[in-house]
Design brief:
Layout (H helix, E strand, L loop, with lengths): L2 H6 L15 E8 L3 H10 L4 E6 L8 E8 L2 E8 L5 H9 L2 E8 L3 H10 L4 E10 L2 E9 L5 E6 L12 E2 L13 E8 L5 H10 L4 E6 L10 E8 L6 E8 L6 H9 L3 E8 L3 H10 L9 H5 L1 H7 L6 H7 L2 E5 L2 E7 L10 E8 L9 H15 L3
Parallel strand pairs: 1-4, 5-8, 10-13, 14-17
Antiparallel strand pairs: 1-5, 2-3, 2-9, 3-4, 6-7, 7-8, 10-14, 11-12, 12-13, 15-16, 16-17
The protein binds fe (ii) ion.
The site of fe (ii) ion has 6 residues, from β10 and β14.
Length: 380
């Protein structure tokens, strides 16, 4: 098994029989209120490296865009420079968030033809962009809310990101890499819409169902949600989709939908090979995590369920790291508080040891933790 197979749970897949082959993630593109400061945060706290830039100095008078990388994960953060930029209206409505989950595909035209035949909304037809580094072919499909999937074939391109971007490196000191890849990206959709979007990913993009969680799996005393997971052929791209379920109080998904003004990306799971060191570094840089109560670790059922893991449970407890085991192995995970002003987007750190799951055994503890925070915000 390669490091990457272990980190994100890859499986073998034959692209030639796939109607919509997806090779992997290309980038997560964000619109934020201040890209200059967000880029600094992602470097100084999350250890990402600056790779490329576009802005007024490069002829882009509309916005600044910083391209950041950590291992196989690429983020692009954009913020308006021109007060009349369309990014201003987007940010006004949604706050900071992910606008584009860009995917790497070997054949853009084949994917768009299939997607159109199966009812997708095509936001950008296949087209080429070129500069001295070569040519990128891309197109874009609409997904939930105002989120899109740009489909990119950059096999004929050697530039730092896209035409219009220049290479730019970080002026911060080099630190250790804190995460290696994107593991999964979770979408929150409205009540009753989860199955529609699961169907979209299956029918339009050839994804398959991985797992689903309903009712008791993820209900707390107050609120509940439903979740289903779809994945591309090799499982590199995994999309859990959540919808609120009717509970006694307002669910965390309702809170998200209210503050994001509609469906959107809820959390991004970042794969690490050493979650303890990563969490220590993030905490030292001021990143805040959802607290896990000591009772979680003292529960004899938990100890029996998780069996042997690579570190003593006390080490996990000290950091608030959650652990879950299924028939394939185990995983360690932890969730940050929202990284935005609105209670919308947050990160998960995940270290997989064979498990292909999403921490089902932790859902209850996690949601109770989120609800304590919701209550503190006055939103429960
Ligand atoms: Fe997750």
């Amino acid at each position: 098994m390669t490091i990457e197979q272990q980190l994100v749970g890859l499986i073998e897949h034959d692209d030639s029989v796939d109607p919509f082959p997806v090779t992997g993630w290309d980038a997560l593109v964000w619109v934020v209120g201040n890209a200059t400061q967000c880029a600094h945060f992602l470097q100084s706290a999350f250890g990402m490296r600056l790779e490329a830039y576009s802005g007024p100095e490069t002829g882009n008078r509309d916005h600044k865009a910083y391209v950041l990388r950590s291992g196989g994960a690429r983020f692009v953060v954009k913020g308006a420079v021109d007060p009349d930029s369309p990014l201003v209206a987007h940010h006004d409505r949604h706050g900071d968030g992910v606008v584009d989950i860009a995917l790497e595909v070997p054949d853009v035209d084949r994917c768009v033809t299939w997607a159109r035949e199966h009812g997708a909304t095509i936001l950008a037809e296949p087209h080429d962009e070129s500069d001295e580094f070569g040519t990128v072919r891309s197109a874009a499909l609409a997904t939930y809310g105002e989120t899109r999937h740009t489909l990119i074939d950059r096999s004929g391109y050697a530039g730092p990101y896209l035409p219009g971007y220049i290479a730019r490196t970080s002026t911060l000191r080099d630190g250790p890499r804190l995460f290696q890849a994107i593991d999964h990206v979770v979408g929150n959709v409205e009540l009753g819409m989860m199955d529609r979007w699961v169907d979209f990913y299956r029918r339009v993009m050839g994804f398959t169902n991985m797992a689903e969680f309903v009712g008791d799996d993820i209900a707390t005393e107050y609120s509940a949600l439903m979740s289903k997971v779809v994945a591309n052929g090799n499982h590199r791209v995994k999309f859990p989709l959540n919808e609120p379920a009717v509970g006694r109080k307002r669910s965390q998904i309702d809170e998200y939908l209210e503050f994001y003004r509609g469906p959107g990306v809820q959390h991004i799971a970042l794969a690490t090979g050493d979650i303890l060191a990563t969490v220590d570094a993030l905490r030292a840089a001021g990143v805040e995590f959802l607290p896990t109560p000591d009772t979680y670790y003292e529960d004899p059922e938990l100890r029996a369920r998780i069996g042997h893991v690579r570190v003593p449970v006390e080490e996990l407890q000290r950091r608030g790291i959650l652990v879950d085991r299924d028939e394939d192995g185990y995983l360690l995970q932890i969730f940050t508080r929202p990284i935005t002003d609105r209670p919308t987007v947050f990160f998960e750190l995940i270290e997989r040891h064979g498990s292909l799951g999403f921490g089902k055994g932790n859902f209850k503890a996690l949601f109770q933790a989120i609800e304590r925070e919701q209550a503190a915000r006055g939103n429960l």
